[in-house]
Amino acid sequence: MRIGVLTSGGDAPGMNAAIRAVVRVAVYENMEVVGIANGYSGIFNGEFRPMDVSSVADIIHKGGTVLGTSRCDAMTTEEGIARAYEILKARKIDHLIVIGGDGSMRGALALSEVGQSVVCIPATIDNDLGYQDASIGFYTAIETILDAVGKIRDTSSALRRAVVIEVMGRHCGDLALYAGLAAGAESVIVPEVPFDFDRVKNKILAGKKRGKRHHIIFLTEEQLPAYGLAKDLEEATGVETRVTILGYIQRGGIPTGVDRMNASRLGAEAVARCGGEKNSLAMGLVDGRIEAVDLETALSTEKVFNRELYDILDKISI
Ligand code: F6P
Fold first, then answer.
1. Quick one: which of 101, 171, 177, 168 has its CA closest to 132?
2. How many angstroms does the Cα of residue 298 sit away from the middle of ligand 1?
3. Closest Cα to atom 11 of ligand 1
4. Closest by alpha carbon to 68, among 88, 39, 107, 100?
5. Residues lining ligand 1, CB < 6 A?
6. If pLDDT is split at 50, 70 and 90, which confidence band does 275 have?
7. What whole-number distance in Å separates Cα of residue 274 and Cα of residue 168?
8. Which of 137, 190, 194, 250 lies most in the core, judged by the most C-beta atoms within 10 Å?
9. How far is the CA of 10 from the centre of ligand 1 (A)?
10. Of 43, 57, 124, nearest to 85 (Cα)?
11. Looking at 94, 126, 174, 259, which residue is catalytic?
12. Are the C-beta atoms of residues 302 and 288 closer than 8 Å to each other?
């Protein structure tokens, strides 16, 4: 039995812990493991390398991915998928383990439709996969955001300022919501809730009246231009308002204990699914348990926004 493993798309802290678990469990089960470097691109470029227990030593605590990653356009075309499948067949990869987010899983699904056995492990800081609770990297990104916000809060308080903090997430408000709640932000602007300028403005005004020295507004990327929002809020409230775009800092860093643990469990369980004939699966943490979900079902499961958390934040952050 030969397993191929790759990481794909945007990296996420904890990917290395998942690679390590895959390799170590596979070796334990007397399987052969081949690492494919630089995501799906590595298939086309012939970047296959045998992995053993030593090749994943000393990586559990590291951010990024030792295999490298990429966003691979060829995997969005029928010809590309067919070619990737032929290469994997020639390399005798019985099961391919893909560690990545929704785009990576779509590539895996397409591969499974032409005959490749695939098992996916969710890894993305965005946490935008609806079939599961927490993808690898999400909780680390929250800690990174909280660390940055603590510093921004110091300087905002010193100067009695408001700050718009833009976080990642693309079409998913989870990073803004969870980090916003944990940071005590006054407002979070997320794609799932219609933007209400007056509500954000009024929270700043109410805080100002109470003598509050800082005002924190979380903004999910791609929703509104952060600098335009800051200018409008400053004009409407009279409170000097600055912008911090956290950017790629959110994707790096030492994975938290929770991410390392989840990655290890997901990696181990993914290998356990590689015994049979052919799979098309997405592993995931569902209500605290590791489950295997049919990949097509996983990708068509709508992500449900946690309105309860949003309402709690709205009530307690005044
Ligand atoms: O990894 C997910 C993500 O961080 C999104 O939140 C963000 O929009 C995107 O990746 C940025 O990706 P790139 O590395 O292609 O700029």
1. 101
2. 21
3. 10
4. 39
5. 10, 71, 124-126, 168-170, 221, 251
6. confident
7. 33
8. 137
9. 6
10. 43
11. 126
12. no
Residue 54 pLDDT: 97
Structure tokens at 1: 């039995």
pLDDT attached to residue 190: 98
Q: In the chain, which residue ranges form alpha helices assigned H by DSSP?
A: 15-28, 41-44, 78-90, 102-113, 138-159, 174-183, 197-209, 226-237, 257-272, 295-300, 307-316
Judge contact between 134 and 178, C-beta under 8 A.
no
pLDDT tens for residues 142-181?
Answer: 999 999 999 999 999 999 999 999 999 999 999 999 999 9
**CB-count exposure of residue 54 (10 Å: 0-12, 13-18, 19+):** exposed
Answer yes or no: 126 catalytic: yes
| Count of helices and strands (H, E) across the chain | 11, 11
Closest of 227, 224, 203, 223 to residue 215, by C-alpha: 203
Average pLDDT of the chain, as a whole number: 97
Q: How far is the CA of 60 from the centre of ligand 1 (A)?
A: 23
Distance CA 274, CA 32 (A): 12
Q: Whose CA is nearest to atom 1 of ligand 1?
A: 10
Pairwise CA distance, residues 64 & 50, whole Å:
20
Longest CA span, the chain:
70
Ligand 1 centre distance from Cα of residue 31 (Å): 34
Measured CA to CA, the distance from residue 94 to residue 32 in angstroms comes to 10
